[in-house]
Amino acid sequence: MINKRMVFEIHRLNDLGLSIRQIAVTLNLDRGTVSKYLKDPDATGKNRPGRSSKLDPFRDIIKDAVKLYPKVKAPVILKLIREKGFEGEITIIREYLRHLRGTRKKQAFIRFESLPGQQMQVDWGHFGSLIYGDSSRKLYALAVIESHSRMLHVTFTHSQKQATLHQCLINAFQYFGGTPKEILVDNMLTAVTERAGSIIRFNESFLNFLRPFAITPVACNIRAPHEKGKVENSIKYLRYNFWPLRSFVDLEDVNHQVLAWLETTANQRLHQTTGKKPMDLLKKDSLRLLPDNLSDFRETQTLRVYKDFAVRFDANKYTVPPRLVGKQVTLKADGRTVSIFYKEKTVAVHNRSWKKNKRIDLPSHSEQVKKLRKRLLMNKQIMVFMSLGQEACDYIEKLTQASQPIKKTVVKLLLLNDTFGTSSMICALRKALEHKLYGAEYIQNILQQEMMPTCDHPPVALKNKELNEIRLTEPNLAEYDAIALQRRE
User: Does the pTM of the predicted model rise above 0.90?
Assistant: First the structure.
Protein backbone atom coordinates (compact mmCIF):
# COMPACT_ATOMS: atom_id res chain seq x y z
CA MET A 1 0.00 0.00 0.00
CA ILE A 2 1.26 3.48 -0.90
CA ASN A 3 0.16 6.95 0.22
CA LYS A 4 -1.71 9.64 -1.73
CA ARG A 5 1.48 11.59 -2.43
CA MET A 6 3.00 8.60 -4.22
CA VAL A 7 -0.23 8.15 -6.24
CA PHE A 8 0.02 11.79 -7.24
CA GLU A 9 3.63 11.31 -8.39
CA ILE A 10 2.60 8.28 -10.47
CA HIS A 11 -0.01 10.31 -12.33
CA ARG A 12 2.24 13.37 -12.62
CA LEU A 13 5.01 11.35 -14.27
CA ASN A 14 2.45 9.63 -16.51
CA ASP A 15 1.22 13.06 -17.65
CA LEU A 16 4.82 13.96 -18.53
CA GLY A 17 4.88 11.04 -20.94
CA LEU A 18 6.97 8.51 -18.94
CA SER A 19 6.22 4.85 -19.52
CA ILE A 20 5.10 2.51 -16.75
CA ARG A 21 8.60 1.04 -16.60
CA GLN A 22 10.23 4.47 -16.33
CA ILE A 23 7.81 5.51 -13.57
CA ALA A 24 8.51 2.27 -11.67
CA VAL A 25 12.29 2.83 -11.87
CA THR A 26 12.01 6.52 -10.89
CA LEU A 27 9.78 5.88 -7.86
CA ASN A 28 11.34 2.52 -6.96
CA LEU A 29 8.01 0.71 -7.32
CA ASP A 30 6.83 -2.47 -8.94
CA ARG A 31 5.42 -2.06 -12.48
CA GLY A 32 2.23 -3.86 -11.42
CA THR A 33 1.73 -1.34 -8.64
CA VAL A 34 2.14 1.56 -11.08
CA SER A 35 -0.40 0.02 -13.47
CA LYS A 36 -2.82 -0.58 -10.61
CA TYR A 37 -2.84 3.04 -9.43
CA LEU A 38 -2.94 4.47 -12.95
CA LYS A 39 -6.15 2.53 -13.51
CA ASP A 40 -7.62 3.29 -10.08
CA PRO A 41 -6.11 6.19 -8.09
CA ASP A 42 -8.33 5.36 -5.10
CA ALA A 43 -7.04 1.78 -4.77
CA THR A 44 -5.23 2.87 -1.57
CA GLY A 45 -8.47 2.83 0.38
CA LYS A 46 -9.85 -0.45 -0.95
CA ASN A 47 -7.94 -2.90 1.21
CA ARG A 48 -10.07 -5.66 2.59
CA PRO A 49 -11.26 -4.83 6.14
CA GLY A 50 -9.43 -6.58 8.91
CA ARG A 51 -6.52 -7.69 6.67
CA SER A 52 -3.20 -7.54 8.50
CA SER A 53 0.44 -8.11 7.58
CA LYS A 54 2.88 -10.50 9.23
CA LEU A 55 5.18 -7.51 9.58
CA ASP A 56 2.75 -5.38 11.61
CA PRO A 57 3.98 -6.44 15.10
CA PHE A 58 7.58 -5.65 14.10
CA ARG A 59 7.23 -2.29 12.34
CA ASP A 60 8.32 -0.27 15.39
CA ILE A 61 11.42 -2.47 15.84
CA ILE A 62 12.37 -1.89 12.19
CA LYS A 63 11.81 1.87 12.49
CA ASP A 64 14.12 2.02 15.53
CA ALA A 65 16.78 -0.01 13.69
CA VAL A 66 16.62 2.31 10.66
CA LYS A 67 16.96 5.36 12.93
CA LEU A 68 20.11 3.89 14.50
CA TYR A 69 21.57 2.55 11.23
CA PRO A 70 20.00 4.32 8.21
CA LYS A 71 21.74 2.01 5.72
CA VAL A 72 20.88 -1.26 7.48
CA LYS A 73 20.17 -4.07 4.99
CA ALA A 74 17.10 -6.30 4.79
CA PRO A 75 18.96 -9.56 5.70
CA VAL A 76 20.09 -7.96 8.97
CA ILE A 77 16.52 -6.89 9.77
CA LEU A 78 15.26 -10.37 8.88
CA LYS A 79 17.67 -11.96 11.34
CA LEU A 80 16.71 -9.45 14.02
CA ILE A 81 12.93 -9.98 13.85
CA ARG A 82 13.14 -13.74 13.18
CA GLU A 83 14.59 -14.01 16.67
CA LYS A 84 11.45 -12.28 17.91
CA GLY A 85 9.00 -14.56 16.08
CA PHE A 86 8.65 -13.20 12.54
CA GLU A 87 7.69 -15.95 10.06
CA GLY A 88 7.44 -14.00 6.80
CA GLU A 89 9.86 -13.63 3.87
CA ILE A 90 12.52 -11.03 3.15
CA THR A 91 10.57 -9.41 0.28
CA ILE A 92 8.07 -7.76 2.60
CA ILE A 93 10.96 -6.35 4.66
CA ARG A 94 12.60 -4.87 1.58
CA GLU A 95 9.34 -3.23 0.55
CA TYR A 96 8.88 -1.73 4.02
CA LEU A 97 12.48 -0.43 4.09
CA ARG A 98 11.90 1.27 0.74
CA HIS A 99 8.76 2.86 2.19
CA LEU A 100 10.67 4.12 5.26
CA ARG A 101 13.55 5.56 3.31
CA GLY A 102 11.52 7.04 0.47
CA THR A 103 12.74 7.48 -3.08
CA ARG A 104 16.49 7.81 -3.47
CA LYS A 105 17.70 10.36 -5.95
CA LYS A 106 20.27 8.99 -8.36
CA GLN A 107 23.07 11.26 -9.47
CA ALA A 108 23.73 11.43 -13.18
CA PHE A 109 27.30 11.20 -14.53
CA ILE A 110 28.68 11.94 -17.96
CA ARG A 111 30.49 8.91 -19.37
CA PHE A 112 34.11 9.75 -20.16
CA GLU A 113 35.83 7.95 -23.01
CA SER A 114 39.60 8.02 -23.42
CA LEU A 115 41.58 8.11 -26.63
CA PRO A 116 43.64 5.01 -27.51
CA GLY A 117 46.77 4.82 -25.34
CA GLN A 118 45.72 7.85 -23.31
CA GLN A 119 44.89 6.30 -19.94
CA MET A 120 45.06 3.17 -17.82
CA GLN A 121 43.09 2.75 -14.59
CA VAL A 122 44.46 0.84 -11.59
CA ASP A 123 42.82 -0.54 -8.45
CA TRP A 124 43.25 -3.26 -5.81
CA GLY A 125 40.69 -5.91 -4.90
CA HIS A 126 40.73 -8.19 -1.84
CA PHE A 127 40.02 -11.90 -2.41
CA GLY A 128 40.21 -13.51 1.02
CA SER A 129 43.29 -15.66 1.60
CA LEU A 130 45.18 -18.77 0.44
CA ILE A 131 46.06 -21.60 2.81
CA TYR A 132 49.66 -22.86 2.95
CA GLY A 133 49.87 -25.79 5.35
CA ASP A 134 49.23 -24.46 8.85
CA SER A 135 49.35 -20.80 7.81
CA SER A 136 47.49 -18.48 5.45
CA ARG A 137 48.29 -15.43 3.36
CA LYS A 138 45.91 -12.62 2.40
CA LEU A 139 45.22 -12.51 -1.32
CA TYR A 140 44.94 -9.31 -3.37
CA ALA A 141 44.45 -8.63 -7.07
CA LEU A 142 45.76 -5.58 -8.91
CA ALA A 143 43.55 -4.87 -11.92
CA VAL A 144 44.87 -2.64 -14.73
CA ILE A 145 42.57 -1.68 -17.60
CA GLU A 146 43.34 0.22 -20.80
CA SER A 147 40.48 2.71 -20.76
CA HIS A 148 39.77 2.94 -24.50
CA SER A 149 39.70 -0.77 -25.35
CA ARG A 150 38.74 -2.15 -21.89
CA MET A 151 41.68 -4.57 -22.27
CA LEU A 152 42.27 -6.02 -18.79
CA HIS A 153 45.27 -7.40 -16.93
CA VAL A 154 45.23 -8.88 -13.42
CA THR A 155 48.05 -9.93 -11.08
CA PHE A 156 47.31 -11.69 -7.79
CA THR A 157 49.67 -11.02 -4.88
CA HIS A 158 50.02 -11.60 -1.14
CA SER A 159 51.02 -7.98 -0.52
CA GLN A 160 50.11 -4.40 -1.38
CA LYS A 161 53.60 -3.04 -0.70
CA GLN A 162 55.22 -0.38 -2.86
CA ALA A 163 57.54 -2.80 -4.65
CA THR A 164 54.65 -5.21 -5.28
CA LEU A 165 52.61 -2.44 -6.93
CA HIS A 166 55.53 -1.60 -9.22
CA GLN A 167 56.07 -5.25 -10.19
CA CYS A 168 52.36 -5.68 -11.00
CA LEU A 169 52.37 -2.56 -13.20
CA ILE A 170 55.42 -3.81 -15.10
CA ASN A 171 53.57 -7.11 -15.69
CA ALA A 172 50.60 -5.16 -17.06
CA PHE A 173 52.73 -2.93 -19.32
CA GLN A 174 54.45 -5.98 -20.77
CA TYR A 175 51.09 -7.68 -21.30
CA PHE A 176 49.65 -4.66 -23.13
CA GLY A 177 52.84 -4.14 -25.11
CA GLY A 178 53.47 -0.56 -23.97
CA THR A 179 52.63 2.23 -21.53
CA PRO A 180 49.92 4.94 -21.51
CA LYS A 181 50.30 8.71 -21.26
CA GLU A 182 48.59 8.78 -17.85
CA ILE A 183 47.59 6.38 -15.13
CA LEU A 184 44.51 6.89 -12.92
CA VAL A 185 44.74 5.72 -9.30
CA ASP A 186 42.66 6.10 -6.17
CA ASN A 187 44.07 7.52 -2.94
CA MET A 188 46.08 4.46 -1.84
CA LEU A 189 49.21 5.32 0.18
CA THR A 190 51.54 3.68 -2.35
CA ALA A 191 50.41 6.32 -4.88
CA VAL A 192 49.08 9.33 -2.93
CA THR A 193 50.60 10.32 0.42
CA GLU A 194 48.67 13.53 1.08
CA ARG A 195 45.66 15.34 -0.28
CA ALA A 196 44.10 18.72 0.57
CA GLY A 197 41.26 19.49 -1.80
CA SER A 198 42.67 19.72 -5.30
CA ILE A 199 46.28 19.75 -4.03
CA ILE A 200 47.76 16.26 -4.33
CA ARG A 201 51.10 15.00 -3.05
CA PHE A 202 52.08 11.80 -4.82
CA ASN A 203 54.24 9.10 -3.28
CA GLU A 204 57.88 9.81 -4.20
CA SER A 205 58.68 6.14 -4.86
CA PHE A 206 55.67 5.96 -7.18
CA LEU A 207 56.86 9.06 -9.06
CA ASN A 208 60.37 7.61 -9.39
CA PHE A 209 58.82 4.46 -10.83
CA LEU A 210 56.73 6.36 -13.41
CA ARG A 211 59.48 8.79 -14.48
CA PRO A 212 61.37 6.47 -16.91
CA PHE A 213 58.06 5.71 -18.66
CA ALA A 214 57.01 9.40 -18.90
CA ILE A 215 53.63 8.52 -17.37
CA THR A 216 51.59 11.25 -15.66
CA PRO A 217 49.77 10.11 -12.49
CA VAL A 218 46.16 11.23 -11.96
CA ALA A 219 44.30 10.72 -8.67
CA CYS A 220 40.52 10.51 -8.62
CA ASN A 221 38.58 12.57 -6.11
CA ILE A 222 37.70 11.20 -2.68
CA ARG A 223 34.40 9.29 -2.56
CA ALA A 224 34.08 9.46 -6.34
CA PRO A 225 34.26 5.82 -7.51
CA HIS A 226 32.59 6.71 -10.81
CA GLU A 227 35.80 8.45 -11.89
CA LYS A 228 37.52 5.06 -12.13
CA GLY A 229 34.37 3.13 -12.90
CA LYS A 230 36.01 1.08 -15.66
CA VAL A 231 38.48 -0.62 -13.33
CA GLU A 232 35.93 -0.91 -10.50
CA ASN A 233 33.57 -2.73 -12.85
CA SER A 234 36.48 -4.92 -13.94
CA ILE A 235 37.11 -6.00 -10.34
CA LYS A 236 33.41 -6.86 -9.96
CA TYR A 237 33.61 -8.82 -13.20
CA LEU A 238 36.70 -10.63 -11.91
CA ARG A 239 34.99 -11.39 -8.60
CA TYR A 240 31.81 -12.84 -10.12
CA ASN A 241 33.06 -14.36 -13.39
CA PHE A 242 36.57 -15.67 -12.67
CA TRP A 243 36.64 -16.33 -8.92
CA PRO A 244 33.59 -18.58 -8.20
CA LEU A 245 33.82 -22.40 -8.26
CA ARG A 246 37.62 -22.49 -8.62
CA SER A 247 40.28 -24.01 -6.37
CA PHE A 248 43.91 -22.92 -6.14
CA VAL A 249 47.11 -24.56 -4.93
CA ASP A 250 49.24 -21.46 -4.45
CA LEU A 251 49.87 -17.96 -5.76
CA GLU A 252 51.50 -19.18 -8.96
CA ASP A 253 48.45 -21.35 -9.68
CA VAL A 254 46.07 -18.39 -9.21
CA ASN A 255 48.06 -16.24 -11.62
CA HIS A 256 48.30 -19.06 -14.15
CA GLN A 257 44.52 -19.52 -14.09
CA VAL A 258 43.71 -15.80 -14.26
CA LEU A 259 46.04 -15.35 -17.24
CA ALA A 260 44.22 -18.14 -19.09
CA TRP A 261 40.89 -16.52 -18.17
CA LEU A 262 42.07 -13.17 -19.53
CA GLU A 263 43.15 -14.74 -22.81
CA THR A 264 40.07 -16.88 -23.38
CA THR A 265 37.24 -14.95 -21.68
CA ALA A 266 37.75 -11.43 -20.33
CA ASN A 267 39.55 -9.94 -23.32
CA GLN A 268 37.68 -12.01 -25.92
CA ARG A 269 34.11 -11.17 -24.89
CA LEU A 270 31.94 -8.57 -26.59
CA HIS A 271 32.11 -5.70 -24.13
CA GLN A 272 28.71 -4.40 -23.09
CA THR A 273 29.67 -0.73 -23.59
CA THR A 274 31.87 -0.81 -26.68
CA GLY A 275 30.20 -3.77 -28.40
CA LYS A 276 33.65 -5.04 -29.43
CA LYS A 277 36.25 -7.43 -28.09
CA PRO A 278 38.89 -5.66 -25.95
CA MET A 279 41.62 -7.67 -27.70
CA ASP A 280 40.49 -6.32 -31.09
CA LEU A 281 39.96 -2.76 -29.88
CA LEU A 282 43.41 -2.37 -28.31
CA LYS A 283 45.70 -0.30 -30.51
CA LYS A 284 49.24 -1.20 -29.50
CA ASP A 285 50.79 1.38 -31.80
CA SER A 286 49.14 4.09 -29.69
CA LEU A 287 51.05 2.92 -26.60
CA ARG A 288 54.59 4.03 -25.82
CA LEU A 289 57.22 1.34 -26.11
CA LEU A 290 58.84 0.06 -22.92
CA PRO A 291 62.48 1.13 -22.32
CA ASP A 292 65.10 -1.39 -23.46
CA ASN A 293 66.69 -1.65 -20.03
CA LEU A 294 64.07 -1.84 -17.28
CA SER A 295 65.18 -1.03 -13.75
CA ASP A 296 65.05 -3.67 -11.03
CA PHE A 297 61.77 -3.07 -9.19
CA ARG A 298 61.94 -6.10 -6.90
CA GLU A 299 61.40 -5.75 -3.16
CA THR A 300 64.86 -4.99 -1.72
CA GLN A 301 66.17 -5.28 1.85
CA THR A 302 69.58 -5.17 3.52
CA LEU A 303 69.81 -7.99 6.06
CA ARG A 304 72.28 -9.51 8.51
CA VAL A 305 73.37 -13.14 8.22
CA TYR A 306 72.81 -14.90 11.55
CA LYS A 307 74.81 -17.68 13.18
CA ASP A 308 72.68 -20.34 11.47
CA PHE A 309 74.00 -18.92 8.13
CA ALA A 310 70.52 -17.64 7.19
CA VAL A 311 68.68 -14.33 6.79
CA ARG A 312 65.17 -13.59 8.07
CA PHE A 313 62.67 -12.45 5.40
CA ASP A 314 58.87 -12.47 5.26
CA ALA A 315 58.39 -14.90 8.20
CA ASN A 316 60.95 -17.41 6.83
CA LYS A 317 64.69 -18.13 6.88
CA TYR A 318 66.79 -18.33 3.69
CA THR A 319 70.33 -19.73 3.82
CA VAL A 320 73.54 -18.27 2.39
CA PRO A 321 77.11 -19.62 2.25
CA PRO A 322 78.37 -20.00 5.87
CA ARG A 323 81.39 -17.76 5.21
CA LEU A 324 78.97 -14.79 5.28
CA VAL A 325 77.90 -15.23 8.91
CA GLY A 326 77.82 -11.82 10.61
CA LYS A 327 77.95 -9.88 7.34
CA GLN A 328 75.35 -7.62 5.66
CA VAL A 329 73.79 -8.91 2.44
CA THR A 330 71.21 -7.52 0.00
CA LEU A 331 68.02 -9.51 -0.62
CA LYS A 332 65.79 -8.96 -3.66
CA ALA A 333 62.46 -10.76 -3.95
CA ASP A 334 59.58 -11.05 -6.42
CA GLY A 335 56.58 -13.38 -6.41
CA ARG A 336 58.66 -16.43 -7.37
CA THR A 337 62.27 -16.11 -6.27
CA VAL A 338 64.42 -14.73 -3.47
CA SER A 339 67.91 -13.66 -4.60
CA ILE A 340 70.68 -12.75 -2.17
CA PHE A 341 73.73 -10.64 -3.07
CA TYR A 342 77.01 -9.85 -1.31
CA LYS A 343 79.00 -6.95 -2.73
CA GLU A 344 76.84 -7.02 -5.90
CA LYS A 345 77.62 -10.70 -6.46
CA THR A 346 74.85 -13.31 -6.36
CA VAL A 347 75.50 -15.76 -3.52
CA ALA A 348 72.13 -17.58 -3.31
CA VAL A 349 68.86 -17.92 -5.23
CA HIS A 350 65.85 -19.61 -3.59
CA ASN A 351 62.32 -20.39 -4.67
CA ARG A 352 60.11 -18.12 -2.58
CA SER A 353 58.09 -19.90 0.10
CA TRP A 354 54.66 -18.58 1.08
CA LYS A 355 54.49 -20.82 4.12
CA LYS A 356 55.53 -19.30 7.44
CA ASN A 357 58.28 -20.12 9.96
CA LYS A 358 60.14 -22.34 7.48
CA ARG A 359 63.85 -22.69 6.78
CA ILE A 360 64.64 -22.73 3.06
CA ASP A 361 68.04 -24.37 2.78
CA LEU A 362 70.24 -25.08 -0.23
CA PRO A 363 72.04 -28.45 0.15
CA SER A 364 75.33 -26.87 -0.94
CA HIS A 365 75.25 -24.52 2.06
CA SER A 366 74.80 -27.36 4.56
CA GLU A 367 77.59 -29.31 2.87
CA GLN A 368 79.93 -26.32 3.21
CA VAL A 369 79.18 -26.20 6.93
CA LYS A 370 79.97 -29.91 7.32
CA LYS A 371 83.27 -29.50 5.48
CA LEU A 372 84.25 -26.52 7.62
CA ARG A 373 83.49 -28.43 10.81
CA LYS A 374 85.40 -31.49 9.64
CA ARG A 375 88.42 -29.38 8.69
CA LEU A 376 88.23 -27.62 12.02
CA LEU A 377 88.09 -30.84 14.05
CA MET A 378 91.20 -32.11 12.27
CA ASN A 379 93.23 -29.25 13.74
CA LYS A 380 96.03 -30.60 16.01
CA GLN A 381 95.25 -28.33 18.96
CA ILE A 382 91.56 -29.29 18.85
CA MET A 383 92.44 -33.00 18.66
CA VAL A 384 94.64 -32.60 21.78
CA PHE A 385 91.81 -30.86 23.66
CA MET A 386 89.26 -33.51 22.63
CA SER A 387 91.60 -36.23 23.92
CA LEU A 388 90.93 -34.94 27.44
CA GLY A 389 87.63 -36.86 27.49
CA GLN A 390 83.98 -36.92 26.45
CA GLU A 391 83.29 -33.64 28.28
CA ALA A 392 85.84 -31.89 26.04
CA CYS A 393 84.22 -33.37 22.89
CA ASP A 394 80.76 -32.25 24.05
CA TYR A 395 82.05 -28.79 24.82
CA ILE A 396 83.60 -28.46 21.34
CA GLU A 397 80.23 -29.40 19.79
CA LYS A 398 78.42 -26.75 21.87
CA LEU A 399 81.00 -24.13 20.93
CA THR A 400 80.41 -24.96 17.26
CA GLN A 401 76.62 -24.63 17.63
CA ALA A 402 77.07 -21.31 19.45
CA SER A 403 79.28 -20.06 16.59
CA GLN A 404 82.17 -19.33 18.96
CA PRO A 405 85.74 -18.90 17.58
CA ILE A 406 86.81 -22.52 18.08
CA LYS A 407 90.56 -22.29 17.50
CA LYS A 408 91.14 -19.27 19.73
CA THR A 409 88.94 -20.70 22.46
CA VAL A 410 90.73 -24.08 22.41
CA VAL A 411 94.17 -22.41 22.69
CA LYS A 412 92.99 -20.57 25.82
CA LEU A 413 91.46 -23.74 27.28
CA LEU A 414 94.69 -25.72 26.76
CA LEU A 415 96.67 -23.02 28.60
CA LEU A 416 94.18 -23.27 31.48
CA ASN A 417 94.59 -27.05 31.39
CA ASP A 418 98.35 -26.63 31.77
CA THR A 419 97.82 -24.46 34.84
CA PHE A 420 94.96 -26.26 36.65
CA GLY A 421 95.38 -29.84 35.45
CA THR A 422 93.16 -32.18 33.45
CA SER A 423 90.92 -33.32 36.33
CA SER A 424 90.09 -29.71 37.26
CA MET A 425 89.44 -28.89 33.59
CA ILE A 426 87.01 -31.82 33.24
CA CYS A 427 85.10 -30.67 36.35
CA ALA A 428 84.91 -27.11 35.00
CA LEU A 429 83.68 -28.36 31.61
CA ARG A 430 80.93 -30.42 33.28
CA LYS A 431 79.72 -27.42 35.22
CA ALA A 432 79.84 -25.16 32.14
CA LEU A 433 77.84 -27.70 30.12
CA GLU A 434 75.28 -28.00 32.90
CA HIS A 435 74.72 -24.22 32.99
CA LYS A 436 75.13 -23.73 29.21
CA LEU A 437 78.17 -21.47 29.54
CA TYR A 438 80.18 -21.58 26.31
CA GLY A 439 83.50 -19.72 26.12
CA ALA A 440 87.03 -19.70 27.58
CA GLU A 441 86.13 -16.86 29.98
CA TYR A 442 83.43 -18.97 31.67
CA ILE A 443 85.81 -21.90 32.15
CA GLN A 444 88.50 -19.55 33.52
CA ASN A 445 86.08 -18.08 36.08
CA ILE A 446 84.99 -21.54 37.25
CA LEU A 447 88.59 -22.73 37.61
CA GLN A 448 89.75 -19.62 39.46
CA GLN A 449 86.83 -19.70 41.88
CA GLU A 450 86.75 -23.42 42.66
CA MET A 451 90.04 -25.09 41.68
CA MET A 452 93.64 -24.79 42.83
CA PRO A 453 96.37 -24.51 40.17
CA THR A 454 98.64 -27.52 40.02
CA CYS A 455 101.42 -25.66 38.28
CA ASP A 456 102.66 -22.32 39.70
CA HIS A 457 105.40 -21.70 37.15
CA PRO A 458 105.22 -21.52 33.33
CA PRO A 459 107.13 -24.03 31.19
CA VAL A 460 110.56 -23.16 29.85
CA ALA A 461 110.29 -21.02 26.72
CA LEU A 462 112.44 -22.29 23.84
CA LYS A 463 113.85 -20.12 21.07
CA ASN A 464 112.02 -22.16 18.42
CA LYS A 465 108.37 -21.05 18.83
CA GLU A 466 107.04 -24.12 17.03
CA LEU A 467 108.61 -26.33 19.72
CA ASN A 468 106.79 -24.31 22.41
CA GLU A 469 103.47 -25.21 20.77
CA ILE A 470 104.02 -28.97 20.76
CA ARG A 471 101.29 -30.77 22.71
CA LEU A 472 100.62 -34.48 23.13
CA THR A 473 97.19 -36.04 23.34
CA GLU A 474 96.10 -37.62 26.59
CA PRO A 475 96.68 -41.41 26.44
CA ASN A 476 93.56 -43.55 26.33
CA LEU A 477 94.08 -46.08 29.17
CA ALA A 478 91.34 -48.31 27.77
CA GLU A 479 93.61 -49.11 24.82
CA TYR A 480 96.39 -50.27 27.19
CA ASP A 481 93.89 -52.41 29.12
CA ALA A 482 92.85 -54.07 25.87
CA ILE A 483 96.49 -54.85 25.01
CA ALA A 484 97.07 -56.33 28.49
CA LEU A 485 93.99 -58.55 28.22
CA GLN A 486 95.11 -59.82 24.82
CA ARG A 487 98.52 -60.81 26.25
CA ARG A 488 96.90 -62.65 29.18
CA GLU A 489 94.75 -64.63 26.79
Answer: no
